[in-house]
Automatic annotation (TrEMBL):
Keywords: Cell membrane, Cobalamin biosynthesis, Membrane, Transmembrane, Transmembrane helix. The keyword ATP-binding does not apply. This is Cobalamin biosynthesis protein CobD. InterPro entries: Cobalamin_biosynth_CobD/CbiB. It comes from Dyella japonica A8.
Length: 309
């Protein structure tokens, strides 16, 4: 029950406060990672494994030791630590804060503002996107980051507490920094990309299942199993295919990166995305969070009842 309560409080803090505007631990971690990369980078997988370990493992160990020490000092301090850590690693409100300006600009017919806003969410060349392509980029980002910024952290917190949430979030951050198939990161970033794939394997499929249950279930299930295998990412594919199917919109397709249009597999079925598709994607993620919290609370209650029977 304490795990479920900690998760509820962390989600509430995120909704109330949003991300810290100054001295966010992830910003400090990003700077540390840049420093470690500058000292460890080499065109070898082993160098990437070493760099990943130096960046992530001390922070996870520190979270575990601090949590254990607080538990021995006073259990409520350990509980408060869990709440604060989870609040710092989830980004539900941040997701909405980035996506809503895109939807608002599209609704107002301001394509230039929509392109600027979506450029803060995705890495593709937004200056050449039309209205539907801007809406697709934002909707894809909301669906995928529903897993990366929210559900993945909730899953590992439920499993391992604050240290699990720290492990997941830092691994996800390093994948975003090093997990590219470029000349610099093809080998060095291999460990960051593969570890993130492993940590996301179960959460991504639970996220996709949540989208199935909370949207157009038949279409979401069909799109998940037919389209996800065609996607390069083993975890983004199920999440975005199920999400697009749940919303009844067409995503995927061609997208421009560094001046080149890349052909990507289709995702979902139905009409082209618009501003409302972005809003509905946010609503789908929020409803998924409520579902997860309810299931974890029910599981905790059953365990508590069994132990006190």
């Amino acid at each position: 029950m304490t795990t479920a309560l900690a998760m509820v409080l962390a989600v509430w803090l995120d909704a109330w406060l949003g991300e810290p505007r100054r001295w966010h631990p992830l910003v400090l971690f990003g700077r540390l990672s840049v420093f470690i990369e500058s000292r460890c980078h080499a065109d070898r997988r082993g160098a990437g494994v070493l760099a990943w370990g130096l960046a992530v493992l001390p922070a996870v160990a520190l979270a575990w030791l601090l949590r254990a020490w607080l538990w021995h000092a006073a259990p409520w301090l350990s509980f408060a630590f869990d709440v604060v850590v989870l609040y710092l690693v989830i980004g539900l409100r941040s997701l909405a804060d980035h996506a809503r300006p895109v939807a608002r600009a599209l609704t107002e017919g301001d394509l230039a503002a929509a392109r600027t806003a979506v450029g803060r969410m995705v890495s593709r060349d937004t200056a050449v996107l039309d209205d539907a392509q801007v809406a697709a980029a934002a909707t894809e980002s909301v669906l995928e980051n529903g897993n990366d910024a929210v559900f993945g952290a909730l899953f590992w917190f439920a499993l391992l507490g604050a240290p699990g949430a720290v492990l997941y979030r830092l691994a996800n951050t390093l994948d975003a920094m090093w997990g590219y198939r470029t000349e610099r990161y093809e080998r060095f970033g291999w460990a960051a990309a593969r570890i993130d794939d492993v940590l996301n394997f179960v959460p991504a499929r639970l996220t996709a299942l949540s989208y199935v249950l909370l949207g157009d279930a038949a279409r979401a299930w069909r799109c998940w199993h037919a389209q996800a295998p065609q996607w390069d990412s083993p975890n983004a594919g199920p999440v975005m295919a199920a999400g697009a199917g749940a919303l009844g919109v067409c995503l995927g397709g061609a997208a421009p990166y560094h001046g080149v249009w890349e052909l990507r597999p289709a995702l979902g079925e139905g009409r082209p995305p618009d501003a409302q598709a972005i809003v509905r994607a946010l609503r789908l993620v929020r409803r998924g969070v409520v579902l997860w919290l309810a299931v974890i609370a029910l599981f905790g209650f059953v365990r508590w009842s069994t132990g006190h029977a």
